[in-house]
Design brief:
The chain is of the alpha+beta class and about 525 residues long. Helices cover about 40% and strands about 15% of the residues. Among the domains are: about 325 residues, no CATH class; about 40 residues, no CATH class. A hairpin with a 2-residue loop joins strand 7 and strand 8.
Length: about 525
């Protein structure tokens, strides 16, 4: 695609550089990301006229050729190999997401005074709730687990209109009455701010980061490139219409029209191109990129993080191969077969109850063979593959609720922690990178409100702390006793209340007492 690139005010980005970035992204990165998605989703193809699927599941591409090549003799499909696809990746990813975000994390402000903390927490909570609440975090965790990283894009274009009508705090140095705003006023403005700040979760196949020449952790620009459907019909050429008309499902020979969208973000400017032509541009008042990058699992010296799906793909292919081999063995051996010798018409009369064959051939015989037989090595190999998937993913069947007798009697919280140690450890590691990303996102939101004059804050007041909920069930009595012990050590009351899951009531609260 050729771009008519307008002068870019942030960085010396050129048309050849932009086209090269898009070409490498579409030819190298997008196929890799699509493969990760296919193995996670293992989606079925569109249904055919008989109620089946026109194509096999996505994970079938990993099977060896001996299973994929169809051998037909006189249109006899009995020589076709049995194919078994068991998706052991999808449920593990969902389990990790459930452990990561059983509910939305609590955002605790570290501002200098109680009033500012209450206002900031109300604003941030309203903003995240307006953008999906816990669904926002779960979607980000899912995309990060699949692709290895996920980005948040902050859209504050609506704040300019809100700034013209409402402001919770006057500008620095302006006269102030000194009266603290009431709680209804704070809540009302928080709801307006929440509906004016849009947080978009950007998946990896759409994102093209332009890294700094001197620091791979810094972005010079952020490019979003994707195909967008529009409300129009595109008929194309004669050959395209003819090929679509031959498809029974699309007799009209038309399809929905689409455009190629390219958006470029920098610290000072924004541009949007449609099919290579500039259609919109605006300055970036934030003075910084409105993008927050989160690695799923930290990968040193790389911008991208580690995917939870990628290390499972070879094991999944091997498991599907062995399951298909077992299905073929069971098909061949489950049904007893007979070999008839010297009996006329034996092939024309299937063996069944109450049937009789008569022959004058003294050498005639009927021999039975086949029948299912145990295969210990095959069974052991499949079990070892499942255990390898458990170790590689950190997610065992027990984490998804499939309790087996061999893990012991889970009569205490400690026993459950030990049995799920791998899953809990991986979730804690992931929460390091996601927690840092959420803190950066909160700081960016407060920075945007300060720039637009809606809610003035200093940089030190924008610090927040993330309080995660426990993924595993805990004893309530023990949690309260632990909170009392922490209170004696001087832990702030609001942090303890957040850990216990209580919302701060209006007005002063009594301290925890031992």
């Amino acid at each position: 695609m050729e771009f008519q690139l307008a002068p870019f005010q942030a960085i010396p980005i050129t048309e050849p550089l932009l086209e090269l970035l898009i070409e490498k992204h579409e030819t190298i990165s997008v196929p890799r990301f699509q493969r990760l998605w296919n193995y996670y989703r293992n989606a079925l193809a569109e249904p055919d006229e008989f109620g089946g699927s026109i194509d096999p599941p996505a994970q079938m591409v990993g099977l060896p050729q001996r299973l994929l090549v169809l051998r037909r003799v006189g249109h006899d499909d009995r020589l076709q190999r049995e194919i078994v696809i068991e998706n052991d990746i999808g449920w593990r990813i969902h389990t990790l997401v459930d452990f990561m975000f059983p509910k939305a994390p609590k955002i605790v402000s570290r501002a200098g005074n109680d009033q500012t903390r209450a206002e900031i927490e109300a604003i941030l909570e309203a903003t995240f709730e307006a953008n999906g609440g816990v669904n926002l975090w779960q979607d980000a965790a899912l995309l990060g687990s699949i692709y290895g990283h996920v980005d948040f894009l902050l859209n504050v274009s609506r704040l300019s209109r809100l700034a013209a009508t409402r402001s919770l705090r006057p500008a620095r140095g302006a006269a102030s009455s000194g009266a603290a705003p009431s709680k209804p006023l704070i809540d009302d403005l928080a709801l307006q701010i929440g509906s004016s700040v849009l947080i978009e979760t950007v998946e990896a196949p759409r994102a093209i980061p332009l890294l700094s020449q001197t620091d791979f952790r810094q972005l010079d620009a952020y490019i979003i490139h994707y195909r967008q459907f529009i409300n129009d019909v595109e008929r194309g050429g004669i050959l395209a219409r003819l090929s679509r008309a031959l498809t029974p499902r699309f007799r009209s020979g038309a399809e929905r029209a689409s455009i190629t969208v390219t958006e470029i973000y920098s610290a000072t400017h924004f541009q949007r191109y449609e099919d290579g032509e500039l259609v919109a541009e605006s300055p970036n008042r934030l003075g910084r990129l409105p993008v927050v990058h989160i690695q799923n699992l930290s990968q040193p010296l790389f911008y991208e993080g580690l995917s939870d799906v990628e290390p499972l793909i070879p094991l999944q292919d091997e498991l599907n191969t062995r399951l298909s081999d077992r299905a073929n063995r069971v098909t061949m051996q489950s049904f007893q077969m007979w070999l008839g010798k010297g009996i006329e018409g034996f092939a024309d009369r299937p063996v069944g109850p109450g049937q009789m064959w008569v022959t004058d051939n003294l050498d005639a015989s009927i021999e039975a063979f086949g029948g299912d037989a145990d295969s210990p090595s095959e069974r052991a190999h499949i079990e070892e593959l499942r255990e390898a998937l458990d170790k590689a993913s950190g997610v065992t069947p027990a984490a998804a609720g499939h309790i087996k007798a061999r893990i012991g009697n889970l009569t205490s919280e400690n026993a459950l922690q030990i049995s799920l140690m791998g899953t809990v450890a991986k979730v804690k590691r992931k929460r390091v990178t996601y927690g840092a990303g959420i803190r950066t996102l909160c700081e960016l939101i407060l920075h945007a409100l300060d720039v637009h004059g809606i809610y003035r804050t200093d940089a030190v007041d924008r610090r927040v702390e993330i309080v995660w909920s426990d993924a595993l069930p805990t004893d309530e009595t023990r949690r309260i006793s632990d909170a009392l012990a922490k209170a004696q050590l001087g832990i702030p009351l609001e942090v303890l209340r957040a850990e216990l899951g209580y919302r701060d009531a209006e007005g002063p609260t009594a301290p925890l007492a031992g």
